[in-house]
């Protein structure tokens, strides 16, 4: 007599799972509401709601808490989202892997980069890689550090270069360089151009900063530096992109943090002015992050290996930018 399969048996889920439902769920998990997900997918709201209901029926679990003012993943939804990202990454890479088997294309490299990555060592590696592999193609996408790591987890990026706050045990990390953040103001600011400043002069001044400038996030050293300078508690403007934080500082919106080596030219050009503390700047490490479970094409593996070798051959002192 044939045994009946349980509602959540692996065999039943494997047989009945529809990738399109998982794809819809990934977008739902990254959205603020069903309406938001529907707009991203270019579908109607009822279609997306129906897809979610079908997926919940397939797995036998509620996946999203939905009520007025609340839209968040359940515990089961969090688990499914992580696995769905892995599946999505594998599917996205199929065409690349098949192309490498059937023609002479050396491959495409997708790099996820935090916006503040200014690293001569990485630039040199890119130049050498292109000189030796002129037919390989490359795309660099700028994200917040958290989003960059998510693309690596999903295997939609070859690797990432970004800040790291909490390490995912499924990923690998290698420190690329260390940078130091200082506090700066722009020409409209009343402290601009003054050479006799102390920390007391910064007390209560308005601040602008990065979205990750929080004690519980990747720029914790910058948060502590701001606190020691006794800047006002309220950050009046934020961005995840260095270029926009720089723009707001130069425009005089407030005092803000920037990497010293990135700001050097702007200081020379009188667009930025460094403020105290001068001797206790915030040290922040930037890492290369990759997924050891991802199957890399020839170009991806070549660039990642070259970057690893250059890091191993370069003393940390030469990868520290002040």
How many DSSP helices?
11
Write the element-wise H/E pattern from the N-terminal end onward.
HHHHEEHEHEHEEEHEHEHEEHE
Strand tally, please?
Answer: 12
CATH superfamily of the largest domain: Periplasmic binding protein-like II
Q: Given this structure, which CATH class of the largest domain is correct?
A: Alpha Beta
Shape: globular
Q: Main beta sheet, described?
A: 8 strands, mixed
Low-confidence stretches: none
Q: Might you state the CATH topology name of the largest domain?
A: D-Maltodextrin-Binding Protein, domain 2
| Radius of gyration, in angstroms, nearest whole number | 24 Å
* CATH architecture annotation of the largest domain: 3-Layer(aba) Sandwich
Report strand %: 15-25%
Overall pLDDT score: 86
Give the count of structural domains: 3
How far apart lie the N and C ends?
Answer: 74 Å
Instruction: Find the structural class using helix and strand composition.
Output: alpha/beta
List keywords for this structure.
322 residues, alpha/beta, Arc Repressor Mutant, subunit A, D-Maltodextrin-Binding Protein, domain 2, 3 domains, 8-stranded mixed sheet, two-stranded antiparallel ribbon, 11 helices, 12 strands, globular, HTH-type transcriptional regulator CysL, LysR_subst-bd, transcription, transcription regulation, DNA-binding transcription factor activity
């Amino acid at each position: 007599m044939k045994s009946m399969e349980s509602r959540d048996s692996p065999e039943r889920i494997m047989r009945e799972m529809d990738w399109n439902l998982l794809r819809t769920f990934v977008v739902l998990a990254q959205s603020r509401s069903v309406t938001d997900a529907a707009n991203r997918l270019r579908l109607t709201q009822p279609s997306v709601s129906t897809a979610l209901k079908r997926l919940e029926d397939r797995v036998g679990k509620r996946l999203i808490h939905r009520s007025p003012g609340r839209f968040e993943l359940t515990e089961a939804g969090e688990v499914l989202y992580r696995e769905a990202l892995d599946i999505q990454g594998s599917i996205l890479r199929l065409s690349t892997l098949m192309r490498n088997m059937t023609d002479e294309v050396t491959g495409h490299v997708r790099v996820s980069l935090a916006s503040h990555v200014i690293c001569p060592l990485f630039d040199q590696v890119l130049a050498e890689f292109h000189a030796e592999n002129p037919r390989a193609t490359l795309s660099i996408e700028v994200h917040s550090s958290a989003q960059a790591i998510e693309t690596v987890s999903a295997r939609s990026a070859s690797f990432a270069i970004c800040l790291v706050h909490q390490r995912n045990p499924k990923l690998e990390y290698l420190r690329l360089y260390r940078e130091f953040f200082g506090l700066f103001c722009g020409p409209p600011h009343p402290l601009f151009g003054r050479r006799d400043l102390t920390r007391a002069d910064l007390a209560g001044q308005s601040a602008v900063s990065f979205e990750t400038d929080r004690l519980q996030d990747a720029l914790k050293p910058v948060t502590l530096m701001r606190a020691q300078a006794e800047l006002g508690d309220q950050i009046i403007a934020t961005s995840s992109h260095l270029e926009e934080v720089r723009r707001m500082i130069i425009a005089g919106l407030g005092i803000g943090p920037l990497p010293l080596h990135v700001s050097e030219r702007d200081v020379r050009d009188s667009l930025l002015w460094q403020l105290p503390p001068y001797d206790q700047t915030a040290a922040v490490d930037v890492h290369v992050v990759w997924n050891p479970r991802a199957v890399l094409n020839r170009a991806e593996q070549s660039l990642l290996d070259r970057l690893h070798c250059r890091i191993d051959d370069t003393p940390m002192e030469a990868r520290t930018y002040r």
